[in-house]
Amino acid sequence: QVQLVESGGGLVQAGGSLRLSCAASGRTFSRYAMVWFRQAPGKEREYVAGINWNGGSTYYANSVKGRFTISRDNAKNTVDLQMNVLKPEDTAVYYCAADRVGTGWRTLESDFIAWGQGTQVTVSS
Questions:
Q1: Cα–Cα distance between 21 and 95 in angstroms, integer?
Q2: Are 72 and 51 in contact (CB under 8 A)?
Q3: What span, in angstroms and rounded, lies between the C-alpha atoms of 40 and 124?
Q4: Burial category of 17 from C-beta neighbours within 10 Å (exposed 0-12, middle 13-18, buried 19 and up)
Q5: What is the reported pLDDT for 1?
Protein backbone atom coordinates (compact mmCIF):
# COMPACT_ATOMS: atom_id res chain seq x y z
CA GLN A 1 0.00 0.00 0.00
CA VAL A 2 0.94 3.63 -0.35
CA GLN A 3 3.31 5.23 2.16
CA LEU A 4 3.12 8.95 2.91
CA VAL A 5 5.60 11.50 4.25
CA GLU A 6 4.68 15.11 5.09
CA SER A 7 7.01 18.07 5.14
CA GLY A 8 6.89 21.86 5.28
CA GLY A 9 5.59 22.56 8.77
CA GLY A 10 7.09 25.20 11.00
CA LEU A 11 6.56 28.34 13.03
CA VAL A 12 4.94 31.36 11.41
CA GLN A 13 3.36 34.60 12.59
CA ALA A 14 -0.36 35.19 12.25
CA GLY A 15 -1.17 36.37 8.75
CA GLY A 16 1.71 34.46 7.22
CA SER A 17 1.81 31.48 4.91
CA LEU A 18 3.15 27.95 4.80
CA ARG A 19 3.10 25.26 2.15
CA LEU A 20 2.88 21.65 3.24
CA SER A 21 3.80 18.78 0.97
CA CYS A 22 3.03 15.08 1.12
CA ALA A 23 5.05 12.59 -0.89
CA ALA A 24 3.61 9.16 -1.71
CA SER A 25 5.50 6.01 -2.60
CA GLY A 26 2.78 3.89 -4.19
CA ARG A 27 2.32 3.36 -7.90
CA THR A 28 -1.47 3.67 -7.60
CA PHE A 29 -1.37 7.19 -6.14
CA SER A 30 -3.40 8.57 -9.02
CA ARG A 31 -6.37 6.38 -8.05
CA TYR A 32 -6.58 7.68 -4.47
CA ALA A 33 -8.28 10.66 -3.00
CA MET A 34 -5.86 12.62 -0.84
CA VAL A 35 -6.91 14.47 2.28
CA TRP A 36 -5.30 16.72 4.86
CA PHE A 37 -6.33 16.39 8.48
CA ARG A 38 -5.13 18.29 11.52
CA GLN A 39 -5.16 17.73 15.25
CA ALA A 40 -4.67 20.42 17.85
CA PRO A 41 -3.76 19.62 21.47
CA GLY A 42 -6.77 18.33 23.36
CA LYS A 43 -8.96 18.24 20.27
CA GLU A 44 -10.19 15.59 17.86
CA ARG A 45 -8.54 15.09 14.51
CA GLU A 46 -10.46 17.10 11.92
CA TYR A 47 -10.80 17.16 8.16
CA VAL A 48 -9.12 20.17 6.59
CA ALA A 49 -9.14 19.67 2.81
CA GLY A 50 -9.53 16.89 0.27
CA ILE A 51 -8.88 16.38 -3.42
CA ASN A 52 -10.25 13.70 -5.69
CA TRP A 53 -8.20 11.22 -7.66
CA ASN A 54 -7.56 13.42 -10.70
CA GLY A 55 -7.51 16.81 -8.98
CA GLY A 56 -10.75 17.96 -10.57
CA SER A 57 -12.66 18.36 -7.30
CA THR A 58 -11.58 19.88 -4.01
CA TYR A 59 -13.26 20.16 -0.62
CA TYR A 60 -12.52 22.32 2.40
CA ALA A 61 -13.57 22.69 5.98
CA ASN A 62 -15.49 25.91 6.51
CA SER A 63 -12.79 27.18 8.83
CA VAL A 64 -10.18 27.24 6.05
CA LYS A 65 -12.20 28.11 2.94
CA GLY A 66 -10.67 31.01 1.08
CA ARG A 67 -7.35 30.64 2.92
CA PHE A 68 -6.11 27.12 2.13
CA THR A 69 -5.67 25.44 -1.26
CA ILE A 70 -5.10 21.74 -1.83
CA SER A 71 -3.46 20.52 -5.03
CA ARG A 72 -1.86 17.38 -6.39
CA ASP A 73 0.65 16.32 -9.01
CA ASN A 74 0.03 12.71 -9.95
CA ALA A 75 3.15 12.59 -12.11
CA LYS A 76 5.25 13.33 -9.02
CA ASN A 77 3.07 11.48 -6.48
CA THR A 78 2.65 14.56 -4.32
CA VAL A 79 -0.16 16.52 -2.73
CA ASP A 80 0.31 20.02 -1.31
CA LEU A 81 -1.58 22.28 1.05
CA GLN A 82 -0.98 25.99 0.57
CA MET A 83 -1.99 27.80 3.76
CA ASN A 84 -2.42 31.57 3.66
CA VAL A 85 -3.57 34.14 6.21
CA LEU A 86 -2.73 31.75 8.99
CA LYS A 87 -4.37 32.18 12.37
CA PRO A 88 -3.35 30.95 15.82
CA GLU A 89 -6.28 28.53 15.73
CA ASP A 90 -4.62 26.81 12.75
CA THR A 91 -1.92 25.55 15.10
CA ALA A 92 -1.96 21.76 14.93
CA VAL A 93 -0.18 18.69 13.68
CA TYR A 94 -1.13 18.26 10.03
CA TYR A 95 -1.45 14.82 8.46
CA CYS A 96 -2.00 13.66 4.91
CA ALA A 97 -4.03 10.54 4.29
CA ALA A 98 -4.97 8.37 1.32
CA ASP A 99 -8.44 7.04 0.55
CA ARG A 100 -8.91 4.28 -2.02
CA VAL A 101 -12.36 5.71 -2.68
CA GLY A 102 -11.27 8.52 -4.93
CA THR A 103 -13.84 11.25 -4.21
CA GLY A 104 -11.98 13.33 -1.64
CA TRP A 105 -14.98 14.17 0.51
CA ARG A 106 -14.94 11.27 2.99
CA THR A 107 -14.04 12.43 6.48
CA LEU A 108 -13.94 9.42 8.80
CA GLU A 109 -10.46 8.39 9.94
CA SER A 110 -11.37 4.74 9.37
CA ASP A 111 -11.87 5.41 5.64
CA PHE A 112 -8.17 5.95 5.03
CA ILE A 113 -5.65 3.26 4.18
CA ALA A 114 -2.49 5.23 4.87
CA TRP A 115 -1.36 8.18 7.00
CA GLY A 116 1.76 10.26 7.11
CA GLN A 117 3.70 10.87 10.31
CA GLY A 118 2.43 14.43 10.69
CA THR A 119 4.11 17.82 10.55
CA GLN A 120 3.76 20.54 13.19
CA VAL A 121 2.34 23.92 12.23
CA THR A 122 2.53 26.63 14.88
CA VAL A 123 1.03 30.08 14.31
CA SER A 124 2.02 32.76 16.79
CA SER A 125 0.02 35.88 17.61
A1: 10
A2: yes
A3: 14
A4: exposed
A5: 76
What Å distances lie between residue 26 and 3, 41, 55, 102, 124, CA to CA?
7, 31, 17, 15, 36
pLDDT digits (tens, 9 = 90+) for 88-101: 999 999 999 999 99
Can you tell me the distance from the alpha carbon of 90 to that of 70, in angstroms, rounded to the nearest whole number?
15
- Mean predicted confidence (pLDDT) in 18-46: 94
- Distance of alpha carbon 85 from alpha carbon 67, whole angstroms: 6
The pLDDT score that the predictor gives to residue 28 is 83
d(CA 48, CA 62): 9
3-state secondary structure of 106: coil
Q: Which sign does the torsion angle of CA 75, 94, 59, 80 carry? A: negative
Distances (CA, A) of 17 to 46, 56, 87: 20, 24, 10
88 backbone φψ class: left, alpha, beta (φ>0; ψ -120 to 50): alpha
